[in-house]
Design brief:
There is one protein chain. The protein is mainly α. The protein folds into 2 domains: 32 residues, no CATH class; 90 residues. Helix content is 84%, strand content 0%. The chain is built from 3 helices and no strands. The radius of gyration is 47 Å and the shape is rod-shaped. It starts with a helix and ends with a helix. Keywords: Membrane, Transmembrane, Transmembrane helix.
């Protein structure tokens, strides 16, 4: 019969030989979980729940990101509409300014023509 420590070491590390049986490890008593396997199960269980919580947080963040993106797209659409409105307003103001400049030039030309006629009338 193997010693209990050697048998447990072989059982933990997977080096179980064909001659090793549970009765060799624990004698004729009933098998019970050793602390090593319980710790390993708890660690795996903690890891599972930690991964589950992490994935749920990621999903929540992505949904929040989608909400933020939706809000930003809405604001972007509103700003694009306001920008097009401003562009049309600026274009109409520029057209009005060009028309005003044309009329000022026409009035200047008219004044020059009237001054020249007046001078021609007075001098001749």
């Amino acid at each position: 019969m193997l010693t209990t420590v050697t048998a447990m070491f072989q059982l933990r590390n997977g080096h179980v030989g064909s001659s090793l049986t549970p009765t060799d490890v624990f004698g004729t008593t009933r098998l019970r979980k050793c602390d090593y396997f319980e710790w390993k199960d708890v660690a795996l269980e903690d890891g599972y729940y930690k991964n589950l919580i992490y994935s749920m947080k990621q999903q929540l963040d992505s949904k929040e990101d989608l909400g933020v993106i939706k809000n930003l797209r809405t604001k972007n659409g509103e700003l694009e509409f306001l920008l097009s409105k401003e562009k049309s307003l600026v274009a109409s103001m520029e057209k009005g300014m060009c028309d005003s400049k044309k009329s000022i030039r026409m009035y200047k030309l008219l004044v020059v023509v009237l001054v020249v006629r007046y001078l021609m009338f007075v001098l001749f």
